[in-house]
Amino acid sequence: MADMFPLYRADQVRAMDRRAIEQWGIPALELMTRAGAAAWALLQAKWPQARRIGVACGPGNNGGDGYVLARLARDAGCQVHLVSAPGGSPRRNPARAALAAWRSSGGRVDSFDGMLPDVDVWVDAIYGIGLSRPPADAVRALIERINASRRPVLALDVPSGLDADRGHAPGVVVQAHTTLSFVAGKRGLYTGQARDVDGDVRVDRLGLPPIDTDQDPPAAWLVRDKDLSAWLAPRHANAHKGEHGHVLCIGGEVGMGGAVRLCAEAALRTGVGLASVATRSAGVAALVAARPEAMTHAVEDAQALAPLLERASVLAVGPGLGQGAWGRALLAASVATGKPVVLDADALNLLAAAPATLPQAVLTPHPGEAGRLLGCSTADVQADRFAAADAIAMRYQAVVVLKGAGSLVAAPGRVPVVIGAGNPGMATGGMGDVLSGVIASLLAQGLPAFEAGVAGALLHATAGDAAARVDGERGLLPSDLFPHLRRLANPA
Questions:
Q1: Where is the YjeF N-terminal domain (predicted)?
Q2: Strands annotated E in 24-142
Q3: Which residues are annotated as a binding site for AMP?
Q4: Which phi and psi (to 5°) does residue 364 adopt?
């Protein structure tokens, strides 16, 4: 598989800290000093003109990191305003020592009184990685003031108020422009609400040895555009279309033929050998005219679908399928084949109404569909996307691609993967139809289901980013991805 980046839960990172202190002999204050120094170096690199630095410190070791940064900034000639969060007196010896060093250098600590000084950059050192509840009222006011300042914010470890494990903020949260994660990447920084508040995420190991993922099994993996080539090897010179599979796209109820057309073209642009479409008679002429390379068939019932199912190697069911009798019959016939199948859109809504285990399936729900599959609300899904993806995978015994900012790929017995690509412009109707075709195409070309889910979601998101760079995110159409899918499916 690709050289993926490991991500961890907060308790795992704390265990790494303890190992550094107890086994490698690195004092806790030394780790804190390294963290503060790394943060100060990043602040200088990001905002070299900043001369007035605001640092908001809480009572834990995160606050201690802030005291170290404040002292280094003051030593460099900056004007530093250090604000103590309500209840912010250090609780542990390393943070107390960092505060003492700050004071001995001539620094002062101001208690938050509802107002903040005018600075060039704020450093958020209020909470660390352990917060899973809303901030206390007094701290909430401080966070709201920092956000209202409209100054850039460097968050240390995680933006204060964000759950580092789930990527969800149960209350107010710091709006960071950059987040520096210490020791290891925290999985919650890369999905869901976190992507609205953590900005540019960096990871600094603080001089510790590289992570041994056998000793420290990740809680998730992060994949990025550079990883695509791991799944998309060049074809041999004597290749023929039969080697690259046959995807049958099933959908396109009356008035929704465009959805299944997007699915079929995505499969073709991703390199499938053959793509067929089973759709309503009324949509055949338009589909043939729009994309003649897709073999389009009029299918009015499951009996007419049977010979097409037999010839296909992979099925993509759901784009424009509808939830009427026609859609239900075609879905039932498709899953009964036992062939690899990608289910999206209305196929997922029908599955939610009649749950079944589908070990050959890849499910691609957005958060609303995920909620229906689990019998919970969209808000419940978004509050813990990792738990939701895992729960769907276990309930349906299938690979799951939970779409959204930082899409997640989960499967029974597999470590989840976070897709480190994609942009808000992709939040538009039809993008999921394209994703279904991409994943089905990679399945047909021989990738196992989990790998096809990961590679397909990454290819789709990376193509979306490439398309957005051309003319911007707003107004991005699903069909804008097609030329980029083809280019990115052929890495140099």
A1: 13-214
A2: 52-57, 79-84, 110-111, 121-125
A3: 403-407, 432
A4: -125, 65
What is the fold, at CATH topology level, of the domain defined by 7-219? Rossmann fold (3.40.50)
CA–chain centroid gap for 395, Å, is: 22
Annotated binding site for (6S)-NADPHX: 61-65, 128-134, 157, 259, 320, 366, 433
Amino acid at 16: M
Residue 356, both tokens? 């079944």
List, for the chain, all residue ranges whose pLDDT scores fall below the cut of 70: 1-2, 88
**E runs forming strands in 231-307:** 246-250, 274-279, 295-298
Domain boundaries, the chain: 7-219, 226-488
DSSP secondary structure letter of residue 348? H
Pairing of strands 153-156, 121-125: parallel
State the binding site for K(+). 62, 124, 160
Residue 4 is given by DSSP the state P
- pLDDT, tens digit (0-9, with 9 covering 90-100), for 371-421: 999 999 999 999 999 999 999 999 999 999 999 999 999 999 999 999 999
- Extract the annotated binding site: 61-65, 124, 128-134, 157, 160, 259, 320, 366, 403-407, 432-433
Question: Which residues are CB-neighbours of 351 under 8 A, at least 6 positions away?
Answer: 331, 343, 358, 363, 373, 396
- CATH of 226-488, picked from 3.40.50.300, 1.50.10.10, 3.40.190.10, 3.40.1190.20, is 3.40.1190.20
Are 433 and 482 contacting, i.e. CB atoms less than 8 angstroms apart?
A: no
Tally Cβ neighbours within 10 Å of residue 205.
15
Which tens digits make up the pLDDT trace of 189-242? 999 999 999 999 999 999 999 999 999 999 999 999 999 999 988 887 888 888
pLDDT at 480: 97
SS3 204: strand
